[in-house]
Amino acid sequence: MGALGNAIRVLDLYAQGEPAAIGVREISRRLDMSKSTVQRIVSELAAAGYLSQDEETERYSLGTRIFELGTRVFASGNFEWRAWDNLLSLREEINETVHLAVRSGRSLVYVAKSEPHRSVRAGTHVGARRDLYPRALGKVLLAAAPPEELEAFLAEPPPRLTPNTVTDPDAIRAELKQVAHQGWATDDEECEEGVRCVAVPLRNREGKVVAAVSVTGPADRLDLADAELLAGRVLEHVSPLTSILGPRIH
Questions:
Q1: In sequence order, what DSSP letters do the residues of 202-223 get, joined into one string?
Q2: Which domains does the chain have, with CATH numbers?
Q3: 200 CB contacts (<8 Å, ≥6 apart)?
Q4: 10, 138, 180 from 13: Cα distances, Å
Q5: 40: CB partners within 8 A, 6+ apart
Q6: Quick one: pLDDT at residue 204?
Q7: Would you tell me how many other CB atoms lie within 10 Å of the CB of residue 3?
Q8: How confident is the model at residue 70 (pLDDT cuts 50, 70, 90)?
């Protein structure tokens, strides 16, 4: 792998979540890359503003240049910041964590999050990359995928994250067919025990699914017996965004 590929591998570490700051030794260990190579890469990334080094700990975190590029994702697509008002109004009504996510290959990426006025919240963050399945957001995005893309995805079984996680390809196909038919998906403690989620698709002006919006909360607060009703409430808040969305938002 060339220098560019190694630099991308280093940056991808930060997309996986904590820790926010990583030292050269840890990066070397996690990527099985020599410390001298890592040092050269992080030094160059820091000089360009993509990483920032803490002078006291000597660890590296993401730099401001990453933020600048991230804001351009929205500016270069047709997704307007008015989406934030819709997410906030949904959060205020439901009082649970609201996520907006897009698909990236076999993963989803959280592009917006609004937390509730409660002590128990979802352990996610904007920019995080997670497996599409079995998350409700991912189910919505997969249900809209062309058949050949779905089959390519199912060729590699999804990870079993909890006892509730479904990994059988036939069962997943059947579930996604139902999701496409009803227009919403659930996660009943399939990603994390004690956590439930309801998600709906976000469509553009052409009617294509370009993102997904979810409501996530503790199992003792989010009753999936009311999943269809909750999905309808989510759609009421985000459906107006269709008029401002072009072909893609990522």
A1: EE-TTS-EEEEEEEEEETTT--
A2: 3-67 (1.10.10.10), 77-244 (3.30.450.40)
A3: 140, 183, 184, 185, 212, 213, 214, 231, 234, 235, 238
A4: 5, 21, 33
A5: none
A6: 82
A7: 11
A8: low
On the CB side of 4, CA atoms within 13 Å amount to 0
pLDDT digits (tens, 9 = 90+) for 154-188: 998 888 999 999 999 999 999 999 999 999 999 99
pLDDT of residue 136: 97
Question: What is the residue whose two structure tokens read 């976000």?
Answer: 202
Which range has the worst mean pLDDT, 30-34, 121-125, 203-207, 239-243? 121-125
pTM of the model: 0.69
Paired tokens of 241: 């965004």
Tokens of 181: 């038919």
Residue 134 has pLDDT above 60, yes or no: yes
- Amino acid (1-letter code) at residue 8: I
Contacts with 44 (C-beta within 8 Å, 6 or more apart), sequence order: 7
**Residue 159, preceding peptide bond in cis (omega within 30° of 0):** no
Sign of CA dihedral 227, 228, 232, 233: negative
Between CA 144 and CA 179 the distance in angstroms is: 9
Residues 214/136, Cβ–Cβ less than 8 Å: yes
- Computed from CA positions of residues 194, 198, 204, 210, in that sequence, does the dihedral angle turn out positive or negative? positive
Helices of type H across the chain: 3-15, 24-31, 35-47, 64-76, 82-94, 136-143, 147-154, 169-182, 227-238
Q: Among 11-15, 31-35, 118-122, name the one with the lowest average pLDDT.
A: 118-122
